[in-house]
Write a structure and sequence with these properties.
Helix content is 49%, strand content 13%. The strands form 5 sheets. A 5-stranded parallel beta sheet has the order 2-1-3-4-5, sandwiched between helices. Strands 7-10-13-6-14 form a 5-stranded parallel beta sheet. It starts with a strand and ends with a helix.
Length: 480
């Protein structure tokens, strides 16, 4: 972080004028306060990188404002100005957390030196904060990648091979398979650790705003652009930029992105200055990119630029052997996050979890375990603790397929019947499917029975018989 916004507080107008003129000339954004109370008020409303405060001001002294800033806005650096070089003032200011002090009358070069030093210090502080948060998140449960299956081992190997270099990686996989987790792992294991990891979801941001988010804009670039804004590319400088849902990027922006990747430079919207960028790109998508290239919704040249190293994450149902390990991991997380002392999964429940189709992949499994752990009345999860999974489609069938839907509906309907008392279940069920099917086809063919029989692939006479036995009202279907 560089110093950009500075507050100057002094009751002497000439000092305010000289300082603000000199600093503005160096392109700092400078605001002034006439006394301590106004300074405190301004600090409360806006974020300043640096506050230069006169020690003696009416109402509230510079030292009092310093104390307020240290308590409330510790990220703002404070420089205290004193009228005479008494050691006492200097010591008090520094003891109270001032970054430095200046003795009036001072040379502007002395101030420049302090600002330069502060800029460097701020950059170091920011880097330390970044490292801290990354180390924390690395040891955080949420950041561990679980899975020993063959396919995951292949993923780890590729990850290990590419992490150290700057190659572009394209991660593909269904929703919830861990694409973002892998992207972060690449960053964590690269030499860019400690520098920013910036993620942007290209599908979640309206297309008009996406360009601005990526490349930033200059002040006055468009109505409402009251300040210069750094885009994600700039924010990720020296770090990693994660372009999530890249398949949703509009074509015109794809062209611009391609240029940026080739030239390694950007221009902010409304600006002329060309900025060099040093950013590692990791992209992800849950769409079929080859198909998108085929139907021209994604540029082929950009696809090849991004797909230098592809990592494809398997759906959870294709690595069921990892499910027990994942369940244990999420149970451990639940114990920790919700302070549950002990919670386990019964073998029957584990069996059920292992056979589920998991269309939402690891995310769905994680949420399922979380919900069940919170609602479970005792310490062992049984199949009854997963009501959403009971009556679900068997493995191998897609949730949203017609057969999947029928299967789920049948299971829940049959659960309410006493099967021992039934003797015509087969016919009853078939009638309930045949009737709506024939109704729909008759409506679509405007009751042309010859056409309807063709569509259904049955004999005309058979159709007529069925219409009679099923009691279908042909007139109603004709719209009469
Ligand atoms: N192998 C794994 N081990 C542990 N947790 C995982 C694993 N894979 C995914 N998760 C967890 O599942 C959740 C979803 O993962 P993530 O957000 O990375 O998926 P995604 O592929 O980016 O999904 P989407 O396409 O919906 O954005 C996260 O909470 C993540 O921590
Ligand atoms: Mg994601």
């Amino acid at each position: 972080m560089a110093i950009s916004r500075i507050l100057v507080a002094d009751d002497e107008e000439s000092i305010r004028w000289v300082l603000s003129k000199a600093l503005k000339k160096q392109n700092y954004d400078v605001e002034t306060a006439e006394d301590g109370i106004q300074a405190q008020d301004m600090v409360q409303k806006r974020r300043y990188d640096l506050a230069i405060l006169d020690i003696k001001m009416p109402g509230m002294s510079g030292l009092e404002v310093l104390k307020f800033i240290r308590d409330e806005h510790p990220q703002t650096l404070v420089v205290i100005m004193t009228a005479e070089a008494t050691m006492e003032h200097a010591v008090t200011a520094m003891k109270n957390g001032a970054y430095d002090y200046l003795t009036k009358p001072f040379d502007l070069t002395a101030l420049d030196a302090i600002i330069l030093k502060a800029t460097k210090a701020a950059a170091v502080t920011e880097q330390i904060d970044q490292l801290k948060s990354e180390i924390q998140s690395q040891y955080n449960f949420g950041r561990t990648i679980i899975g020993n299956s063959q396919t995951m081992q292949t993923v780890y190997k590729t990850l290990g091979r590419v992490a150290g270099s700057d190659v572009t990686v394209l991660i593909t996989g269904e929703s919830g398979t861990g694409k973002e987790l892998i992207a972060r792992a690449i960053h964590m294991n690269s030499s860019r650790l400690g520098k920013p990891f910036i993620a942007i979801n290209c599908a979640a941001i309206p297309r008009e705003l996406l360009e601005n988010e990526l490349f930033g804009h200059e002040r006055g670039a468009f109505t409402g652009a009251t300040e210069r804004k750094a885009g994600k590319f700039e924010q990720a400088e020296e770090g990693t930029l994660f372009l999530d849902e890249i398949g949703d990027m509009p074509l015109e922006l794809q062209a611009k992105l391609l240029r940026v990747l080739q030239e390694k430079e950007i221009t902010r919207t409304g600006g002329h200055q060309v900025l060099k960028v040093n950013v590692r790109i990791v992209a992800a998508t849950n769409q079929n990119m080859a198909e998108q290239v085929e139907n021209k919704s994604f540029r082929e040249d950009l696809f090849y630029r991004l797909n230098v190293v592809p990592i494809s994450l398997p759906p959870l149902r294709d690595r069921r052997e990892d499910i027990p390990m994942l369940v244990e991991f999420f149970l451990q997380k639940a114990r920790q996050d919700f302070g549950i002392e002990s919670i386990e999964c019964s073998p029957e429940a584990l069996d059920m979890l292992g056979n589920h189709h998991w269309p939402g992949n690891v995310r769905e499994l994680e949420n399922t375990i979380k919900r069940a752990s919170l609602l479970c009345p005792n310490h062992v999860l049984t199949p009854a603790d997963f009501p959403d999974l009971c009556g679900k489609v068997p493995a191998g069938l897609h949730e949203d397929s017609l057969e999947g839907l029928v299967c789920r509906k049948l299971e829940s309907s049959l659960a309410q019947m006493n099967l021992c008392e039934m003797d015509n279940l087969y016919e009853m069920v078939l009638h309930q499917i045949e009737r709506p099917l024939i109704n729909i086809v008759l409506q679509k063919t405007r009751c042309n029975q010859v056409r309807a029989a063709e569509v259904l692939g049955i004999n005309r006479n058979t159709l007529r018989k069925k219409i009679n036995t099923l009691g279908i009202d042909v007139k109603r279907n004709n719209g009469d």
